[in-house]
Amino acid sequence: MVFGFSNAAIKTHQLIWWISICSILLLRLIDLLEWKLRSSKFSSSGLFGVQRYAAGCITTGIAWSCYVLIFYNQLHSVELFFKVLIISTLAGGSASFLAANRFIAISYSMILLIPISVLGLFAEQGHRQLLGVLGLAYALAMVSICVKTSRFTSNAIYQKNLNAHLIKEMENEKNHVALTNQELEVSSNELNQVNINLEDEVKRRTDEIFQLSNLDPLTQLINRKAFTVSLETLIEHSIIKDSPLALLFIDLNGFKKINDTMGHKVGDSVLIQVTRRILAFSDNDRVGRWNGDEFLMALPYSDNDTAISIAKAIATSITQPIYVHGNELYLSASIGIAMAPAHSSSATELIQLADLTMCEQKKSDNKLPRLFSNDLKEKITAAQMILEGLQHAIQRRQLFLCYQPIQSAKDNVSFAFEALLRWDFDGKFIGPDVFIPLAEKSGLIKEIGAWVLNRACMDANHWQFGRQAAVSVNVSVIQLMDDGFIRFLDNCLRSSGLAPHRLHLEVTESTFVENKEKVRQQLEQIQARNIDVSIDDFGTGYSSLSQLQSLPVNYIKIDKSFVDNIEGKGEAIIRATLFIARELNCQTIAEGVETKEQVTALSAMGVDYLQGYYFAKPMKNEDLVVWQNPITKVFSKTDC
Ligand code: C2E
Ligand code: MG
Ligand code: MG
User: Fold this and answer.
1) Residue 542 has what pLDDT?
2) How many helices (H) and strands (E) does the chain have?
3) What is the fold of 224-372?
4) Which of 43, 213, 449, 618 could cross-link 402 (Cys pair, CB 3.0–4.6 Å)?
């Protein structure tokens, strides 16, 4: 416009205007760029931006109006029309371009339109006045348009921003969900890992529990419980397949001695080696460890002959020397065999039968493996009958005590009387050698032993002869180990009124082999009550000297077998026993003395007391008085 309608009179002013408006636009451009740059980096206040923009717009508008105001009179009609056209266009454009802000849009268009319209109104020319009227009308229309477009645009921007806000929220939500998903995934992975670990742990624990509950920790063979279960299944199969199954009960001979003398470490190594030898004849799951040195082997599809051949081979294998820590050790095995279903279809019973057969085999001279038989069955039935009878023996008053004197070797005075238990089983006499082991196995010995101790104390307290004679009572290791035994002993003495020094207790030598510490404690308590203790059957119990050394005992009873053999090797053993007794500070009693020669020899060797048929057989309590009387002594018929 400046250069198109160049006017020589105002050329300089036109140029100044042109430079001014260009500067304003340039400044606005710079301002815009700076604002854009800053708002992209920092969150800046929107209001400040609007104010700057408004200032720019209004300045521009004023600049346009100034052109008209300054040069109005110099403008000829064509230029004025152009000018009006441009200003109207700019004002019209502002209605949409600046509609976002009502104030800016209206202000801008008013600044452009009002000056030129007002100037027109006051002009002299008619067409200029018309332009002024039209300009004002247009200005009013513009106000209305600006208000409307601004409302519409503001709404649109508000909605756009609202949407943007929602989108941002959604975006945030989405990110949040993604993050949560990610965390969930991590947790799930962790959980999976934990599950895997847990599964491993459960498996490991299950294996551990299986090992603990089913496997013997030393030999890794299945234990008693697991073997019984497995045997039940094998028996069922053998019945279905109609094929016999053999059960071998293997017990080691001599193991206890090795364990006691060479220590448990050597014992353990021996058991492991024996296990290996046994396993050479069967699968792992068919062999079990029953007890310390007892093993079981199930042989499916085996008849009697096969079972015996395998048992013989196992026995031979076990007798081969075993090398442990440079020692050459020897063992043997007793093997009892029972067949399923011929002898029994029950696993528990089959094991019992094989065990009993093994025990019989152990007792016999023939050391070959033995098969369960009818003879044995009769024997077992008899034992069962005895056991059943024994359960009622006390109530039925079938038990009674006999007493056998123990004489002083020096002056033949009765120093003590040994109480020996007798059982009249419905008119049949059963010896203690038969029923005492059964009572021990079944646990009845506690009740029976208590009865014996009580009876013996009461009898002894009423003895009118030899007032100082003691009563010597046999006590089973099971009784001795009982925690209530000492209390019971005190009760017996109190209720019977017997002086403690008149009570002696006899414990067999084998008692000392196991539970040495507990035995020692119990014996100390017994002795603390002034009750003497004798080791019975000395020389037969495999106890070592070192085991006896620390034990508190008062008498050693030399076993009858050595007295019987006094003219042979017995003499040396008796002399050795006497030597040991002296070392242990004990007195000696020889058992089973039957002849005058034995009396002479034993007395000469220095044995302190003698007991045996030579002096008297065990007698009933009422016969003791008769026997004690020198006149009636010869008439006493003491068959008890
Ligand atoms: P023990 O304590 O060694 O008893 C000695 C055994 O030898 C008794 O046999 C006795 O009758 C027998 N005897 C004694 N002198 C002679 C002799 O000169 N010749 C022969 N041939 N035998 C003689 P009994 O009464 O049959 O007792 C056997 C075993 O039973 C006893 O051996 C003892 O270990 C056990 N016993 C007996 N009564 C009881 C008891 O009340 N409780 C316990 N726990 N065991 C008992
Ligand atoms: Mg005895
Ligand atoms: Mg004895």
Assistant:
1) 63
2) 21, 17
3) Alpha-Beta Plaits (3.30.70)
4) 618
